[in-house]
Amino acid sequence: MSHSHSLKQLSDSLEGSLLYDDLHKTLYATDASAYRIVPLAVALPKSTEDIVKLVRYAIENKTTLIPRTAGTSLAGQTIGDGIVVDVSKHFTKIVAFDAEKKTVTVQPGVIRDELNLYLKPHGVFFGPNTSTSNRCMIGGMVGNNSSGTTSIRYGVTRDKIVEIKTVLADGSIAIFNTITSAEFVEKTKGDSLESAIYRKLYEELSNEANQQEIKNEFPKPEIHRRNTGYAVDVLLKSDLFGGTEPTINVGKLLCGSEGTLAFTTEVTLQLDDLPPTNNIMVVTHFTSIQESLEAVMIAMKHHLYTCEMIDDTILDCTKHNKEQSKNRFFIQGEPKAIMMFEVGSYISMEEAEKQADVLIKELEDNNFGYASVKLYGADIEKVNELRKAGLGLLGSIVGDDKAADSIEDTAVELSDLPNYIADFSAMMKRHGQEAIYYAHAGAGELHLRPVLNLKTKEGVYQFRNIATEVAILVKKYRGSLSGEHGDGIVRGEFLPFMIGEKNYELLKRIKLAFDPNSVLNMGKIVNALKMDENFRFETDRVEPDIQTIQDFSDSMGILRAAEKCNGSGDCRKLPSAGGTLCPSYRATRNEKDTTRARANALREYLTHSEKDNKFDHKELYEVFELCVSCKACASECPSNVDVATLKAEFLYQYQKANGFSFRNKIFANNAKMNKMGSLFPALTNFVSNLSIVKKGMGVAQKREVPLLAKQTFRKWLSNNNVNSNKEYPNGKVVLFCDEFTNYYDVNVGIDAFELLTKLGYEVVVVEHEESGRAYISKGFLEEAKMIAIKNVATFAPIISDDCQLIGIEPSAILTFRDEYLRLAEDKTAAEKLAKNVLTIEEFFKKEIGAGKIHSGQFSTSEKQIKIHGHCHQKSLSAVEATFAMLNVPKNNSVTIYNSGCCGMAGSFGYEEEHYEISMQMGEDTLFPKIRATDENVSIAAAGTSCRHQIYDGTSRKAQHPVSILKSCLIN
Length: 971
Known about the structure:
The strands form 7 sheets. The chain has a 6-stranded antiparallel beta sheet with strand order 5-6-11-8-9-10. The chain is built from 46 helices and 27 strands. 55% of the residues are buried. The protein is globular and about 100 Å long.
């Protein structure tokens, strides 16, 4: 029977779904590791019964099942040539919570931070805290025995295992929890696979020679963060196997087994009391890596909650990342490394201050660090976000030399750390390498990364060679080659050396006992695939020459722009994590609709397509379809993967081969259409909202097509003789008359003009082209390019530090600072112009700072205002400018919604097939918050699309911030 036929039969039998099209196999061929293996299929099971069916299929068809949650594994654990079983979509329930026992039972697809939000009102939390905590899932944390920043205080995932419910490799169900020694022996009796597993464990671990071999060869027991092979050393604590404990839990063996022994369907976890809220982060700055590590020996004598390190390579990356550049406010000078020491007290902030001061004094007395900064409250979270962004930030390094994951997870006993790193640094120097150092110094584990080009044979040789030398070095200190990221593919090959051949054979026998049919995640830990094969990139390939209309030279071409995505999965965070990234994934919870998927798909097809036009693939159209070009990825993705720009280029190239649809032509040429329609606005409004017209244009019937104003903004300017001889004490500004303000939101344009004029500014509006936003969003880049060239030529000669260009509609004015830099021919002029282009809110904030605009010019009446920021504003500007502007009247009370994307996204939300998903995006965060807002509160939204979406979704009318501020002006 052919694979396709048997997969069709399997698909029909599942409650969930089975995907085996080229696109989904491509998307699941990679995770956050350096590897790429195309799977047979991707399963999204809905029930335990589905998983049982998948196991039986794998047995019958001699294939393997690869468990997967968020797909953020760094060692290649979640890829393989079998069926990838993604439980992140449906296995997301919190099953039970026991307040008395302080335990919680969850399915493997529950996100760590989401779990803790649920637990917080009960005063408890799940302690292990990875850098990916806002999207990583409990199943993955159990599979890898995750640790994170808090392990020095709260331990690792294995410490929290109470019970694991599984499907075994024969399709039977087994539950592993704490049992007595007698109960363990009783479980060895029987004919089931579960009984066979207990018999094999009893037989192997009762053997004194095996026990001694484990004690001799496994990492030092003092190293708490160790993921070397299967945790048989933990089971030796049982009095059955030479230890002293009267109970045993085989679930602790499953933790860290990477899905190679059983398929987890539920996990019960032990919880801790919430950490203290009286916290202080001491950030100490050092002139060398070695000095920072020696300081850890002093710091760890104190009662720390975290002890984390960041080196200068990552700190330099933060300078060029919009989000993280704001989070490095505390940095003093140019440190080679910083250490983040967190202290806390349940008693009082005064007690925490004492702890911090004592720590700083001891560091100073021992001449460690040139500066120590104390951070409090929200600032602690900012520095934690900076640290968490480490891996993603490394992806933003331009070019083919990248921070490689081959030696990034070593752990040694804390007292060995300075000497180990000194030896490591000397080794790296021999290889001509400047390594990257960061992460969990207080736990004896640093994420160490060489910078290698894995597109070359030399880079791949170095990948293995350095990994081999590091393995020898770690063995010298009896450390663990993996502290928390697991063996997977990248380290599995080294296990015989790290734990000895006898122990390795023992692990193989245990694997065989659990998985006699070889169906569970084969090629990981034991019998591992080679660590220098199956890379994302073919070595020494001829780099594809991809011609684009946009300038991608800042990334060395569009292919490398896509390759910046390292799979860290920041785009899978949910609304509770804050920010906007990624609206489509939040609405569908499908991997296909992530930023990661789009970058991965583009990389795959641009690399492997044999077509002349490598963009001409329906799979690419499918993966980009729900991207709303919000640009959140450009700022919130640590690797700065700007998918909106990639999508615009894709649409242009794809439509060159497949034609531009009638609807896209209408939307792209919206400004031209409105110019004609504005001659008879009432008739145009009537016709465009007829049901038959909307149907013909593919516009959702539930939408009202935006109404043209009775007169254009330019017409109003002409009729009102604005060029009077009045004095303007505050100087001159040029107002960009964007196509949305000119035809639809004329009242906002009038408010802006009158507000600026009354505040003493001469407002000049010149003849110019539209912004080109509609052309860009629909991929009409030749037209957009001509507009960019003309607008740069128009404004470059007249805009300067003393006379700036300001705009009302964020998506229009910000094209000057974003897309024009890729489209304009005169780059120098475009870049110089961009520096003096501001949103109107940014201009007000600047002028408030200069004292030209002040509270005395505005009413003292009380007004409550809530702000929803436009996506482009949040990504390319800052909503804080709106906040500053609306706070000028002294009795205004202003807050900013944490509201994500509204979902309208220009024409996207009007398109019939996208209406429902558009509204779902709004429902994710914005609509509920609007509905919960009192009717007396004014809602500010700078984006015209946002205002329409707010009205359609909540029946509330939002206003542009300019209109709200004008209403506060003293006449």
